[in-house]
Amino acid sequence: MVLVGKTGAGKSSLGNSLLDKKVFESNTFGISSTNTCELGERHLQDGSKLVVVDTPGIFDTRNNITETSKEVVRCIGLSSPGPHAFVFVLKIGRFTQEEMDTIQHLKDLFGDAVVNHVIVVFTGEDSLDYEGSTIHQHIENSSEQLISLIHQCKGRVASINNRAQSINLQVDVAAILKLVRQTIDTNNRAHYTEEMFNKANEAMQSKIRQQEEEKMKAEQEILRREQALEERAKEIEAEMEKGRQLERENELRRQEIEQRKREQAAHVHRHHRRHRRHRQQCVLQ
């Protein structure tokens, strides 16, 4: 089985509980203790072998999402010929958008068919005991997104208190292993195959190419609009400059007209003065 979920959900602690020994490093500070996929094994009483793969926190902000995704994909090789179950680990509490993004990222990586192999396990079961509640009551009072997720997984859900005493912990582990066996039987003992992954990977690459094409088209459209706006701005500036030039020409014409008027007025004034002097001289004679 492959353990998936966001950083701090308790994947590593769950893996140790399932293996009945400490194999994976874990902490309680919400910082990913796992940067690479790690594998642990346990031989069960019925003679079967349990293989658990712990994965990095898919949405750990310290890690590059692309590199983390590649590392998660590597878990397929570790669980060769392929995992029978993906255990989606959630910490009891509010189901956030980050958890929704995690399950969507899981689908993007491994395809929608992966939900046929998904089991949801809630950690922190002791908080339910403190509230006097059960895991099913917790789910009923949770968001529609979480209820939808449980429905997609055909109701395969369990809870565990990784800090419980040995006897109680064994009961929780047994319930989870029972769900794993039921999942295997439901899928006719078929595991998640490399062929399924390749198909999902092709779909994801196609989706990425489509997103890149759409992004390129959007960027080209933005560039086209910016160029159009720039051209329009130049046209407006040219029109405004043309208007300013016309105003300057009109002002020059107005000034010329005013100047001619002043000159004409001065000429008329001089003519009148000469005429008056001439009349005065005639009177004196």
Descriptive key words:
285 residues, alpha/beta, 6-stranded mixed β-sheet, GTP-binding, GIMA/IAN/Toc, nucleotide-binding, AIG1-type G domain-containing protein
Task: Note the topology.
Elements lengths: L1 E3 L6 H9 L18 E6 L5 E6 L10 H9 L1 H4 L7 E6 L5 H14 L7 E6 L1 H7 L3 H6 L3 H9 L4 E4 L5 H21 L7 H91 L1
Parallel strand pairs: 1-3, 1-4, 4-5, 5-6
Antiparallel strand pairs: 2-3
Helix pairs in contact: 4-9
What does this structure look like?
Residues 238-266 have a biased composition (Basic and acidic residues). Belongs to the TRAFAC class TrmE-Era-EngA-EngB-Septin-like GTPase superfamily. AIG1/Toc34/Toc159-like paraseptin GTPase family. IAN subfamily. This is AIG1-type G domain-containing protein. It comes from Patella caerulea (Rayed Mediterranean limpet). InterPro entries: G_AIG1 (IPR006703), GIMA/IAN/Toc (IPR045058), P-loop_NTPase (IPR027417). This protein has 285 residues and is of the alpha/beta class. The chain has nine helices and six strands, in the order E-H-E-E-H-H-E-H-E-H-H-H-E-H-H. It has a six-stranded mixed sheet with strand order 2-3-1-4-5-6, with helices on both faces. Helix 4 (97-110) links the parallel strand 4 (86-91) and strand 5 (118-123). Helix 4 crosses helix 9. The longest helix has 91 residues, at 194-284. The radius of gyration is 41 Å and the shape is rod-shaped. The mean pLDDT is 82.
